[in-house]
Amino acid sequence: xxxxxxxxxxxxxxxxxxxxxxxxxxxxxxxxxxxxxxxxxxxxxxxxxxxxxxxxxxxxxxxxxxxxxxxxxxxxxxxxxxxxxxxxxxxxxxxxxxxxxxxxxxxxxxxxxxxxxxxxxxxxxxxxxxxxxxxxxxxxxxxxxxxxxxxxxxxxxxxxxxxxxxxxxxxxxxxxxxxxxxxxxxxxxxxxxxxxxxxxxxxxxxxxxxxxxxxxxxxxxxxxxxxxxxxxxxxxxxxxxxxxxxxxxxxxxxxxxxxxxxxxxxxxxxxxxxxxxxxxxxxxxxxxxxxxxxxxxxxxxxxxxxxxxxxxxxxxxxxxxxxxxxxxxxxxxxxxxxxxxxxxxxxxxxxxxxxxxxxxxxxxxxxxxxxxxxxxxxxxxxxxxxxxxxxxxxxxxxxxxxxxxxxxxxxxxxxxxxxxxxxxxxxxxxxxxxxxxxxxxxxxxxxxxxxxxxxxxxxxxxxxxxxxxxxxxxxxxxxxxxxxxxxxxxxxxxxxxxxxxxxxxxxxxxxxxxxxxxxxxxxxxxxxxxxxxxxxxxxxxxxxxxxxxxxxxxxxxxxxxxxxxxxxxxxxxxxxxxxxxxxxxxxxxxxxxxxxxxxxxxxxxxxxxxxxxxxxxxxxxxxxxxxxxxxxxxxxxxxxxxxxxxx
Length: 647
Fold this sequence. Notes:
Blueprint: H1 4-20, E1 23-28, H2 31-42, E2 49-55, E3 69-75, H3 78-96, E4 108-113, E5 116-121, H4 133-142, E6 147-148, H5 150-159, E7 165-169, E8 179-185, E9 190-196, H6 207-216, H7 225-233, E10 241-245, E11 256-259, E12 271-273, E13 276-278, E14 287-288, E15 293-298, E16 306-307, E17 313-314, E18 325-326, E19 330-332, E20 338-341, E21 345-350, E22 353-357, E23 359-362, E24 373-375, E25 378-381, E26 390-393, E27 397-399, E28 407-410, E29 414-416, E30 420-430, E31 434-436, E32 439-446, E33 449-452, E34 456-463, E35 466-469, E36 475-483, E37 486-489, E38 491-492, E39 500-504, H8 508-545, H9 550-586, E40 592-599, E41 603-607, E42 610-613, E43 618-626, E44 629-634
Parallel strand pairs: 18-22, 23-25, 24-26, 25-27, 26-28, 27-29, 28-30, 29-31, 30-32, 31-33, 32-34, 33-35, 34-36, 35-37, 36-38, 36-39, 37-40, 39-41
Antiparallel strand pairs: 1-3, 2-3, 4-5, 5-7, 6-7, 8-9, 9-10, 11-15, 12-13, 14-21, 15-20, 16-17, 19-20, 21-22, 40-43, 41-42, 43-44
Helix pairs in contact: 8-9
């Protein structure tokens, strides 16, 4: 790309050429005769000559008062300029970063005023043709102008700067000036002007003339300056032209409320999961958290006054106001412009008021009509939770019916008035306690208690405190039950000898984590053994061959890096295992397992690190730990204040 420096050098060279150019002064009765004379002096064909008129010639009258044409003649540079244009066109366009304008030729304008004859010449656009002196003279002649300065006309043509320049005189007759009339219509919102052409010796209208006339006739607002400017150069006669237009008043915008939650729940947006539409994720609950901005009011705006063309003000109406209304658990700012939630819960717009409910109630079952439930408060289901659906809550979950092969997850308590029929797939997780009439073929994880009045059948249950199963038919049969402090039921196991694993005396979550870490450690140890075996083989090979191929050397480097990484991971795992073991040893949990009825063979008792497999039937007993052995004593009842609630 050609830069600015190259262009600067080019312009300097062009200026130097201009200084060296040859020219001559020539004169003759006609321009052609003068050019012939110059052609002889310069030794250049006429077609390669350019000229400027210094003095116009005249044929005189009947041969009297003849006057020669006087020219300055020089060699044309059109071809050279055209060549330069082809070379620099693209680069100049890139440097100036402007679009090439539409091709348009230069124009000539002649205006007759009370001060004389004025001429304006404009430059062409794009590749449009330039105005020639002949064109300018033709335009003057067309307007009947004969008394003009030819040299000045030539200069105006050459400069083509778009400015009106006085170039001559004419016989001015004020009576024949161009005339104007104005008509104001449309309830003073529009003004039309009609211009009559000037007569012989009459003056054209100027922009200033038109503005002054409009003002004097009461048109003072909305004058279309661009229209008047154009009429100055391109006058339109005897036709009504819209020259002024009033401004209509703009009424202020009404106050409005922008809600930061969905207010229309009639439209359900289904989500895709693994390329298929998930009809369970209906997202009907609009959750919010404490401190969340729920809505913002945009105040009404003042209107913008209008004005007629005669300057009369048209008052605008201010926008209508609206009140931001709040209901329960929502705080309104002092200025009344914002609404903020005070609690976690479901935001609702009821009768124009914003409310946040801490409890979300499902009137029937959790099924395809409701979809899965996710709520930042407490959920109450008045029906059942059907198979395949989930209910997740930041508060409690209470189900008045039963729970199938579903997922329940709550930070608080989970209360199921009927039973949990997990069908080997139901998962219940509670940050606090789980209460149900019975639990069957389910996975239950509780932060405190698990209480089932009618028993726990073939389930995986973990409780950070106690598992309590007391009622007329309360039995724990099959599965694996883990509790940090106590397992207490009416019946443990069954007559059929169903394997029932009961574990107490430790933190079950930490124990589970410990088990996973030990499995991880075992995997790392196997990988380390494999890497060291490969390294040993390659080292022996190096001793035998003395020089290993590059591939083998590279493999040794990779194995050493892998060995270092495995050792680092193994060290971290061992450190974490040690930490959990220290924690478990520090726990002062004693742990006990009790049955107010019978304990059948097939039950396996684990208290801390001691175990006992029940081979004979026990009645009304409590198992406890003594000297690292599981002992049996008389049944100890559950302390009533420990049982928060029974269902």
